[in-house]
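lol forgot to send this yesterday, sorry. C-alpha cells for the thing we talked abt
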C-alpha cells in the first residue's frame, strides 16, 4: 500500500535534496526566483525595443534554453572546482 505524503515530507524532501547543495545552497533561490525574474526583465527589455508581442515571445522563448543551461553550467563548474580542491 502506498502512503500518501504530507506537506512536511515533501518539504523535507526538497530541502534535504543533495542536488540543491551545489552553489552553496543558493541554487534553490537561483532556480525559483532569480531565473524567472531575469526572464521577465529580458522580455520587458525586448518588448520596449520591438513593441511587437509575437517577436517578444519568440525571442524570449529562444532565450529560455540558454539561460537554464547557463545555470546548469555554473553549478557544474562549481562542483568540478570543489572536487579539485578536495
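and heres what i got for the seq, position by position
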Amino acid at each position: 500500500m502506498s502512503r500518501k505524503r504530507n506537506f512536511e515530507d515533501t518539504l523535507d524532501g526538497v530541502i534535504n535534496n543533495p542536488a540543491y547543495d551545489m552553489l552553496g545552497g543558493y541554487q534553490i533561490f537561483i532556480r525559483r526566483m532569480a531565473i524567472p525574474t531575469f526572464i521577465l526583465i529580458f522580455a520587458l527589455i525586448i518588448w520596449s525595443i520591438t513593441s511587437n508581442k509575437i517577436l517578444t515571445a519568440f525571442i524570449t522563448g529562444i532565450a529560455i534554453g540558454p539561460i537554464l543551461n547557463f545555470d546548469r553550467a555554473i553549478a557544474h563548474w562549481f562542483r568540478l572546482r570543489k572536487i579539485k580542491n578536495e
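Residues 30 and 58 are 24 Å apart (CA to CA). anyway ping me if u want another try
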